[in-house]
Specification:
Elements (H helix, E strand, L loop, with lengths): L14 H17 L3 H23 L4 H15 L9 H27 L3 H6 L13 H6 L3 H12 L4 H8 L3 H20 L1
Length: 191
């Protein structure tokens, strides 16, 4: 009697699938209280959350909001059901938190700064090369409503209907604000 060897294929995960699997298992572990798993999730996602905060409310509030997002994520981790990637869930949580905090930032700004011209004279980022386009700076110069809609639509990829629901406005308003933001950006970047 001769023995036959049979070949059994092993599961081969592509790098994106592997990272999604690791992310999911870290999310499960973190929801059970594993601080190291949450730290890995934090390190994997902190740059994206910080960039989102910078674009939506400016550099001044971004570090605080980034921290708030991860504190909220730790508190709400038990609600993550795994139906989407953790990073997708975290992004939505971040957008919602930033939208809820922006009103208080506007109130604080109005209370402490009476003249908007003072802000226009301040440099928000260190000067770079002479001919470099400061796209982030141009976004930061947009009025709050136009900036919020521009970031959500053109950078983060939300549809007008989703933005309207998040902000409690009509889709016509989001479209008008997006058009306004684009026109203002052209002006800022052209000068």
């Amino acid at each position: 009697m001769s023995a036959t060897l049979t070949w059994h294929p092993t599961l081969a995960l592509e790098p994106p699938a592997l990272s999604q699997t690791l992310e999911s298992s870290d999310a499960v572990l973190a929801a059970r209280g594993d601080a190291q798993a949450f730290r890995r999730l934090y390190e994997e996602n902190v740059d994206r959350v910080h960039a989102l905060a910078c674009r939506m409310v400016g550099y001044e509030h971004a570090p605080e909001l980034t921290q708030d997002v991860f504190v909220r994520a730790w508190q709400k981790l038990h609600t993550f059901r795994g139906e989407s990637r953790f990073s997708t869930w975290l992004h939505r949580l971040a957008v919602n938190l930033i939208l809820s905090k922006r009103a208080s930032f506007a109130n604080d700004r109005a209370r402490f700064i009476a003249d908007d011209e003072v802000l226009d004279r301040l440099e928000t980022r260190p000067a770079g090369r002479e001919h470099a386009i400061d796209f982030e700076g141009a976004i930061g110069r947009l009025p709050e409503g136009a900036r919020m809609i521009f970031v959500l639509h053109d950078i983060e990829g939300y549809r007008h209907e989703e933005i309207a629901t998040m902000l409690g406005v009509t889709t016509g308003t989001t479209k008008a604000q997006l058009h306004r933001a684009r026109m203002l950006l052209r002006g800022h970047l052209g000068s």
